[in-house]
Amino acid sequence: MKVRHLLAIKDLDREDLDEIFALAADMKANPERYGDALHNKTMAMIFEKSSTRTRVSFECAMARMGGHALFLSPKDTQLGRGETVSDTAQVLGRMVDIIMARVFKHGDVVTLAEKSGVPVINGLSDYAHPCQALADFLTILEHKGKFEGLRVVYVGDSNNNVTHSLMECGALLGVSVDCACPKGYYPAPEVVEWCREVGRKTGATFNVIEDPVEAVKGADVIYSDVWVSMGVEHEKEQRLIDLHDYQVNLALFEKAKSDCIFMHCLPAHRGEEVTDDVCDHPRSVIFDEAENRLHAQAALILCLFAAWK
């Protein structure tokens, strides 16, 4: 892999993604081969936002490869008491081998990468969620056997980090990503513009379709996420009204292709953006997707260390 950090999917190219997916598949099938790959390596995990899947997947990935992970909540660091991100980065970079940060501001992971002197992984920021996209497309590859020509439809609030990374990854892989959402919830224009430019070379297209029924027709994948993310709880009442018609229920799911799979980055608010009968459907792959956070991130870590050699 050519990049030394992963801050956003658009930092990568198709060769980088293929390398990560191939390594992740081998690590998943043959974990015993990698038991000492990170002997005596330490990861600092900075969490400004809590997460079940992010914490467990990174800790387990490091442990399975013989390394260690340090969980650092806001109360465990001086960031919450006025120390700059730059100073924190330079201190951690002298003690640990790699940093994963789950933050509010994307600029903070950029600063960590600029100042730490070690690989930095964006575990989530207000702009991007690249690790989720890696797990998503690893899961799609496992279930569909290919990328080119597939069509993913994201249903719901599309102006968020998950959608942005999903679209960027689709652009690089030749997977079209359409968003079914109402006005006020469109993906960021600059992300759409970048994806369309890349998509001209890979065959991927990107559209916003306000009618969810029309949007899911012909979909290979339907993707959903919570309507009320951390930090926008004060908007819950209005969001539930605005997005009411964008619930992924069985009636909507059955409008897609007969082999369409359902994906969700979790946690799901069952009964809001998705119903139980879709979450628990035989073609729901949400738990495969969650498990693949572990394998995709383990592969990413090894690829980043290799890039630093």
Strand content: 5-15%
CATH top level of the largest domain is Alpha Beta
Shape designation = globular
CATH superfamily of the largest domain: Aspartate/ornithine carbamoyltransferase
**N-C termini distance:** 11 Å
What would the CATH topology of the largest domain be?
Answer: Rossmann fold
Tell me the Rg in angstroms.
Answer: 19 Å
The figure for the number of domains is 2
The number of helical elements comes to: 12
* Mean pLDDT over the full residue set: 96
Largest sheet: 5 strands, parallel
Give the helix proportion (percent range). Answer: 40-55%
Low-confidence runs: none
Structural class: alpha/beta
* Largest sheet strand order: 7-6-5-8-9
Strand segment tally:
9
Structure commentary:
This protein is α/β, with parallel strands linked by helices. The chain folds into two domains: 9-129 and 291-308, Aspartate/ornithine carbamoyltransferase (Rossmann fold, 3-Layer(aba) Sandwich), CATH 3.40.50.1370; 130-289, 3-Layer(aba) Sandwich (Rossmann fold). It contains twelve helices and nine strands. It has helices spanning 14-29, 52-64, 85-93, 106-116, 130-144, 161-173, 189-202, 212-216, 236-242, 250-253, 276-279, 286-308; strands at 42-47, 68-72, 98-102, 120-124, 151-155, 176-180, 208-209, 221-224, 261-264. It has a five-stranded parallel sheet. Strands 2-1-3-4 form a four-stranded parallel sheet, with helices on both faces. α5 (130-144) crosses α6 (161-173). The longest helix has 23 residues, at 286-308. It is globular, with a radius of gyration of 19 Å. The chain starts with 13 loop residues before the first helix and ends with a helix.
